[in-house]
Amino acid sequence: MFGRLKALNAVITHILQQITDKRYVLVSEMEHISNNLPWRERFEVEYIAVNQDGQIQLEDLKDKLIKLRGQIGLVDWRER
User: Which residues pair with 48 in a beta bridge?
Assistant: First the structure.
């Protein structure tokens, strides 16, 4: 687990250095809270709803993309 978290933090650090003018990160509700913590240092986190099968709800994603157009630095989700 340590190797995975270290790698994730390295990627996030790199991304944070590249994204300077965006305000939001979209992540799925299934994302573990520890994976969201680095994003919170720089962005407001918006959660994408998921259904009972663990799949993102595309209508919710679409609504958030429209509402936050031009302000999103990253969209991150993993389906289970």
Answer: 28
Q: Phi first, then psi: what are they for 50, rounded to 5°? A: -125, 155
24-37 pLDDT, tens digit each: 888 888 877 776 77
- What whole-number distance in Å separates Cα of residue 74 and Cα of residue 22? 9
- Whole-angstrom Cα Rg for the chain: 13
pTM for the model: 0.67
Provide the pLDDT for residue 48: 92
Residue 22: phi, psi to the nearest 5?
-110, 155
The answer to whether 4 touches 35, Cβ cutoff 8 Å, is no
Q: What are the CA-CA distances from residue 22 to residues 3, 50, 59, 63 (Å)?
A: 28, 24, 22, 18
CA distance 16 to 37: 13
